Amino acid sequence: MTDFISYPYLSGRLEKTQSAGDQQSEVGKAVRLTPRRLPTGARLIGPLLVLIVWEAASRLGILSPYTLTAPSAAVVTGYGMLADGTLLPHLLASAGRAYAGLFLGVTVGVILALLSGLTQSGEALIDGVVQIKRAVPTLALVPLVIIWLGIGEAMKIFLIFTAVLVPVYINTHAALRGIDIGHVELARTLGLTRGEFIRKVALPGALPGFFVSLRLAVTLCWTALVVLELINTQTGIGYLMNRARDWGQTDVIVVGIFIYAILGIVSDTVVRLIESRAFAYRRALGA
């Protein structure tokens, strides 16, 4: 060790080597402490276990079919309804309502978030109104919206739109407000116009918050639809479930629950895939 001390160059290399080793050790610890990314399909383990326990309880007689039908019986019923043409028209009607409200809510929510997040006048005019809507449950608006729009399709799409708009606005607005001030100063130094700033800095910076809101929205549009389709409808999955309740058909009710669950999971998966594509550059940079 004394030989290394007498030569500063070698001593410096030793210190660098030791510090690099310490850093690698710390990184190794961090990697071990960080949860690994779940493999594809691992999130389905929990729901599958619930279905297995549910099926077992039904077959052992713990659950009566008049109280809650078995998953296997619901699958048979759903297949029969699909084969005889009963299910598909109602599924398409529900999907049309849900995705029309989703599209309007996401579009208007992003526009309002941009106006409020990038301008003081926009925030003064918009943010308070959205926060008030956030505090008012969507179902509390049903009587008033029925007076405005009647009890047809427009009422249901409008209420889904208002339910979706709030999380889209809140999360996108928060992401815009959280953009690194260094990026703003850099844009100002480079002399970017407002349009260029929005396109090159604001929108990319808001993407994380937007995708969080989109995942909430694709689930929320179906959640709102479940209740709205119980109000004077002759088509839709909610209508089938409501009619099945009157006749005590628990298998049809479970079919409807399965459809809502599957559509929600599929929609969330699609958003996750789009999000992973949009942020592919982060993995390439090791971010």
From TrEMBL:
The chain crosses the membrane at residues 98-118, 139-170, 210-231, 252-274. It is a multi-pass membrane protein. It is found in: Cell membrane. Gene3D superfamilies: MetI-like. The keyword Transmembrane applies. GO terms for cellular component: plasma membrane. Keywords: Cell membrane, Membrane, Plasmid, Transmembrane, Transmembrane helix, Transport. GO terms for biological process: alkanesulfonate transmembrane transport. PANTHER family: ALIPHATIC SULFONATES TRANSPORT PERMEASE PROTEIN SSUC-RELATED, ALKANE SULFONATE ABC TRANSPORTER-RELATED, MEMBRANE SUBUNIT. Belongs to the binding-protein-dependent transport system permease family. Probably part of an ABC transporter complex. Probably responsible for the translocation of the substrate across the membrane. This is Aliphatic sulfonates transporter permease protein.
